[in-house]
């Protein structure tokens, strides 16, 4: 799962690197804005992955093959319905998103072009969320690795072909993402068909077509939806405030956030392992296995986080230079690089506990802690730290991550660990 997840931000690094070597920072800013918008739209519905993992892991622990079919089918039905709504509302969604971020007119024009193409990846992206979440719940990390690698390698190759080979700009980056997501769906469905043939059970049409049968699904996922909405809001707000300072700050923060995503997706790999291991133990009511899973994944998360900090300290400047050859963007990113260096050891707790809470389907607690960290810590910190400019924005973001980790650790010790 670590290998699988790291490939996702590596794709983002290629996107940034391709447009970061074009003749203007406008393209880099436009891709940053477009990526932020789709981060908001798609991450908002990431409950399709998270909720499906927790539910499937518990069904796997209970050895319920019929339930596993229903879990996959319901997640895919919801994915198709949501993506149809996104496509139907694409014009107002695109205009509102760009207005809220507030880039300058040149950047906004290219961002609209990016949005109008990439929105067509919605059905494939959301179905892929459901497939990946289901396989993780089965403790099968091989298929998600293959699926993510197919998507990202296809995207990288097409990035290079469209932008460097055919001379396209942000439209080439967006089109590459669309094609890659549909390639991933094709591969994922083949693996799902094979897995279902091995797990003999009958499909229940009623449980897929009757709204009342989705009660458990929505009980878990409604809270995850709100939690993810708050998280994506924090990242979007961060990008928006950078854009309002200047195009240069927007571009520099985009480069640093690309590296931060390398960190977050790497740590999420262990969080996904925690989801599957903790969920199965919880479904089997095995408290010893649950505590062992939390201990092991936390230990390895801390080791990997420390490795990221060392990497950013020793090679951060080189990584920034790899992503862009625009000297003004480089020098600005170097100024704020120390925030990236300290981020791993601060962020690691929230990433790991996300996995634990998903495994035991404590989605309401996740929602409450996220909302509190956003409304009571991040936004007030940003408001009072505005005189510090972009340093204040980064400090507010770091305090937001501290609040999430402390809140979830406290809840785990007082409620989850004491429950079994």
Written account of the structure:
There is one protein chain. The chain has 420 residues and is mainly α. The chain has one domain. 88% of the residues lie in helices and 0% in strands. The protein is built from 16 helices and no strands. It has helices at residues 2-20, 25-44, 47-61, 65-88, 90-101, 105-118, 122-137, 142-165, 170-198, 205-209, 215-245, 247-283, 287-323, 327-359, 363-385, 390-419. α3 packs antiparallel against α4 (65-88). The longest helix is centred in the middle third of the chain and has 37 residues, at 247-283. The radius of gyration is 21 Å and the shape is globular. It starts with a helix and ends with a helix. 53% of the residues are buried. The mean pLDDT is 86.
């Amino acid at each position: 799962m670590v290998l699988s997840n790291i490939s996702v931000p590596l794709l983002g690094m290629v996107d940034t690197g391709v447009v970061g070597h074009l003749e203007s920072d406008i393209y880099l800013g436009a891709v940053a804005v477009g990526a932020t918008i789709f981060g908001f739209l798609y991450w908002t519905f990431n409950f399709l992955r998270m909720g499906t993992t927790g539910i499937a892991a518990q069904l796997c622990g209970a050895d319920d093959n019929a339930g596993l079919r229903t879990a996959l089918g319901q997640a895919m039905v919801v994915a198709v319905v949501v993506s149809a709504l996104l496509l139907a509302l694409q014009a107002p969604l695109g205009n509102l998103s760009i207005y809220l971020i507030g880039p300058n007119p040149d950047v906004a024009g290219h961002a609209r072009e990016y949005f109008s193409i990439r929105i067509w990846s919605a059905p494939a992206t959301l179905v892929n969320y459901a497939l990946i979440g289901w396989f993780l719940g089965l403790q099968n990390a091989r298929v998600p690795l293959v699926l993510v690698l197919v998507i990202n390698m296809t995207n990288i190759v097409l990035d290079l072909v469209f932008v460097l080979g055919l001379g396209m700009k942000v439209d080439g980056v967006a089109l590459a993402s669309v094609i890659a997501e549909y390639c991933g769906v094709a591969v994922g469905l083949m693996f799902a068909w094979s897995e279902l043939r091995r797990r003999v059970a009958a499909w229940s049409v009623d449980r897929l077509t009757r709204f009342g049968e989705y009660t458990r699904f929505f009980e878990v996922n409604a809270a995850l939806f709100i939690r993810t909405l708050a998280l994506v809001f924090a990242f979007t707000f961060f990008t928006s405030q950078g854009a309002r300072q200047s195009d240069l700050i927007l571009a520099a923060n985009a480069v640093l956030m690309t590296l931060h995503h390398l960190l977050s997706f790497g740590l999420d790999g262990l969080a996904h392992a925690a989801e599957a291991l903790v969920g199965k133990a919880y479904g089997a009511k095995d408290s010893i296995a649950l505590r062992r899973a939390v201990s092991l994944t936390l230990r390895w998360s801390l080791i990997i986080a420390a490795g990221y900090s060392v990497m950013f300290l020793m090679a951060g400047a080189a990584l920034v230079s790899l992503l862009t050859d625009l000297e003004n963007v480089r020098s600005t990113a170097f100024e704020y690089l120390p925030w990236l260096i300290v981020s791993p050891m601060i962020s690691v707790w929230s990433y790991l506990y996300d996995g634990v809470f998903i495994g035991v389907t404590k989605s309401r607690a996740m929602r409450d802690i996220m909302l509190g960290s956003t409304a009571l810590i991040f936004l007030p910190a940003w408001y009072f730290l505005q005189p510090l400019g972009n340093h204040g924005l980064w400090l507010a973001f770091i305090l937001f991550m501290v609040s999430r980790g402390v809140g979830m650790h406290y809840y785990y010790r007082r409620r989850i660990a004491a429950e079994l």
